[in-house]
Specification:
Elements: E1 2-6, H1 11-23, E2 26-31, H2 35-46, E3 52-56, H3 62-75, E4 81-84, H4 99-123, E5 128-135, H5 146-166, E6 171-178, H6 191-198, H7 209-219, E7 231-234
Parallel strand pairs: 1-2, 1-4, 2-3, 4-5, 5-6, 6-7
């Protein structure tokens, strides 16, 4: 299969890329700023014997996003799988959130999902699978994360709506609602805050990027061919 992953230099995107490479997928890794990590990941994946293309893209810039995606049609062909794993956070009270900050979070977390999903679906002539990485905050908003929570709620609503539009084309569209995952995005939390969060979980640990990758493997595999418009919680039983 041919798979495209946005946010591939992040911990979750990288874990998904490794899992897909082990499955035998040829990959496009899209990244924004961490070129070192993206190139290191591409070398690791190439050693597994699959084709890998690395491209830089600014998902906050609609024109750049559309330009890079269009270029993939010539260098990579139609994808079988798209995973929207790119995401940014904004931790601030609403009163301290600027319009520019709000717009950037929505551009990367929601608009890029729309643009990439639309591009992929147009290219998926023989059907395909689209998975977007959402967050528990999309359905359980927390204070001081209004922009992030609202952007993830938008992703989940888009997922359900778009699934209805493209189901007849043999395309499934799903999302993964990730819980507390051990990534740099949660590095600002103190040990006490993490322990308090864990106390509310059925499985008493923080999740790993591999936990999310396993869910992405399932949703993009043949075993999930009758699942679409679903938001799969990977949250330890919050």
């Amino acid at each position: 299969m041919k798979s495209v992953i946005t946010g591939a230099s992040g911990e979750i995107g990288a874990a998904i890329a490794r899992a897909f490479a082990k499955r035998g997928d040829d990959l496009v890794l899209l990244y924004h700023s961490d070129e070192k990590s993206a190139l290191a990941l591409s070398r690791e994946i190439a050693a597994m014997g699959v084709m890998v293309i690395v491209k830089k893209v600014d998902l906050a810039d609609a024109a750049d996003t559309e330009r890079v995606l269009a270029s993939l049609e010539k260098s990579f062909g139609a994808p079988d799988v798209l995973v929207n794993a790119a995401g940014i956070s904004l931790v601030a009270p609403v009163f301290d959130t600027t319009a520019e900050g709000w717009d950037r979070v929505f551009a990367v977390n929601a608009r890029a999902v729309f643009l990439a999903s639309k591009w992929a679906a147009k290219s998926m002539i023989y059907g395909g699978k689209i998975v977007s990485i959402s967050s528990i905050w999309g359905s359980r908003p927390a204070s001081c994360e209004a922009a992030y929570a609202a952007s993830k709620a938008a992703v989940e609503s888009f997922t359900k709506s778009f699934a209805k539009e493209v189901g007849s084309l043999g395309i499934t569209v799903n999302a993964i609602s990730a819980g507390m995952i051990d990534t740099k995005m949660n590095a600002h939390l103190t040990a006490e805050e993490k322990e308090e969060f864990i106390s509310d979980l059925a499985i008493k640990r923080i999740g790993t990027p591999e936990d999310v990758a396993n869910a992405a493997l399932f949703l993009t595999g043949e075993g999930a061919s009758y699942i679409t418009g679903t938001v799969l919680a990977v949250d330890g039983g919050l």
